[in-house]
Every structure is written in C-alpha cells, then in structure tokens.
Amino acid sequence: MSGIKTILTAAIAAVLWAGPVTAEINLPQVFAGCAGRLSAEMERSWLLSQDEAAHFEAQRESFQTLLDAVVPKEEMRTVLIYRIETKIAHASLLTTADFGVDAARAARARAVAQKHVAACERLLLGT
Q1: How much is the pTM?
Q2: Which of 10-34 are b and which e, b meaning 16 or more Cβ less than 10 Å from the residue's Cβ?
C-alpha cells in the first residue's frame, strides 16, 4: 500500500511541478490566414456577382486591422507572403467547389472552404 501512496504522491508532485499547460497561438498567422481566405471569398463574390462581397470585404478589413496591431513592421513581408499563399489555396478550393467536374470532390472543397471561413468569422465579434 505504501508503494501506491509513493507513486501517487510522485505523480501529484510532477503535475504540480510541471505547471499549467498552455496552447501557443500564432496570432499573426491566424489573422493573415483569415484575411487571405476572406480576400478569396470576396473576389469570388465579385466574379459571380453575389451580394456577399461587401460582407467579406468588411471582415477582411477587420482581420487586416488586427494583423496590423500584432505584427511588427519588420515581419510584415513574411506575414504578407503567408496571407497571399493562404488566399491562393482558398481560391483553389473555391474554384474546385464551383467548377469542379467531380461532384464529390467539389462538395468536399466547398465544405472545407466553408469550415475555414466559419472559423474565421467566429473570431470576430458581432458576426
């Protein structure tokens, strides 16, 4: 019985000693990714003459404002490159969703694009 007590005491001490577990979030990457995705959505809405373009533009501007607040000027180029890469990837998803000949693949692309945009929208207040 004393062996179990020793193991439990050691386990509790190890947990307390380790401290709290925190997840590290890269805010510039999150904000740049969302700005890129929303840029792709906005351009798609323009091309297809949809009314959502203004909505996506406003959200994109919100993420750009957040991005400007957290990124030092000397890192802005790197963040801009990531934003553009994310925009291109999201635009590719939208192209597959809208014009893909494989219906199942188009549906998956649409679902993934919607999931990404929904995650971004949840980060903004009032949306």
Answers
A1: 0.77
A2: eeeeeeeeeeeeeeeeeebbbbbbb
